[in-house]
Write a structure and sequence with these properties.
Blueprint lengths: L12 E5 L4 E5 L9 E7 L2 E5 L7 H8 L2 E5 L9 H8 L3 E4 L13 E4 L9 E8 L2 E8 L4 E4 L3 E2 L12 E2 L9 H4 L6 E4 L9 H11 L4 H21 L1
Parallel strand pairs: 4-5, 5-6, 6-7, 10-13
Antiparallel strand pairs: 1-2, 2-3, 3-4, 8-9, 9-10, 11-12
InterPro entries: RibonucZ/Hydroxyglut_hydro
């Protein structure tokens, strides 16, 4: 199975959530990495996060309202952000500390310190490795949590009966500073479908059991984790 598909997406998995609060989509459901993208409705408009092109996605975004901006939350998630930004005539918004992405998007870039525009979405730095910079984003008003890389629901992130699991290397150093104490209503991840039911419990369990389950995760997903990193570096 391909970790990350290169062909155009024709059969995406599109999921609307909340009371027309947002849309999440997986452009290539059959790929092992299951890259996920999101559109979150805010008072100022819709923020599109880590987008990949897919059939029907723009219609779903338009139904939410006018687009306020495009955001990239991981140094590995430039994806199609430039194309989306040009389509909606908005800049690609990056945290001041974000590296790598600007050189990979063909669109104007706007830097911000902590909050995405007037969205109420606050972004904090998680820096597991020198080349891996990730923004963990949270909107307290409705409990929307976005974790682009450190946690996921795609198969390579999970062991046993986990509904939400940490990326293999993050199991050794869980991102508790960024995530502990949060009480999300939903967790939107960069790889796999969102977690809607008992999201806080799923997050707490993922953090609490990460190290204990590392040996099993290493056996089951070690080669896939290496392959995922190598393929991401090439993009």
């Amino acid at each position: 199975m391909t970790m990350y598909a290169d062909r155009p997406s024709s059969t995406p998995l599109v999921d609307r959530w909340g009371d027309d609060e947002g849309v999440s989509w997986i452009a290539h459901p059959a790929e092992e990495g299951q890259r996920a993208s999101h559109a979150v409705r805010c008072e100022e408009g819709v923020w599109i996060v880590d987008p990949l092109e897919a059939r029907g996605v723009h219609e779903a975004i338009t139904e939410l309202g006018p687009v306020a901006g495009v955001a990239v939350l991981s140094s590995w998630h430039a994806r199609d952000a430039g194309e989306f930004a040009r389509r909606y005539d908005v800049p690609v918004s990056l945290p001041t500390w974000m590296t790598r992405v600007e050189a990979r998007v063909d669109a104007p870039v706007e830097r911000y310190e902590r909050t995405l525009g007037e969205s109420g979405i606050h972004v904090s730095l998680s820096n597991p490795l020198p080349t891996w910079r990730e923004g963990i984003a949270y909107r307290e008003s409705d409990g929307t949590l976005l974790v682009p890389e450190s946690a996921g629901t795609a198969a390579p992130f999970l062991v046993g009966d986990e509904r939400l699991g940490l990326e293999l290397s993050r199991r050794l150093r869980p991102p508790r500073v960024s995530l502990a104490g949060l009480e999300p209503e939903r967790v939107l991840v960069g790889h796999g479908p969102p977690v809607y039911e008992d999201a806080t419990a799923a997050l707490d369990e993922a953090l609490a059991t990460a190290r204990r389950r590392f040996p099993r995760a290493l056996v089951e997903h070690g080669p896939d984790s290496v392959r995922s990193v190598l393929e991401a570096v090439r993009k």
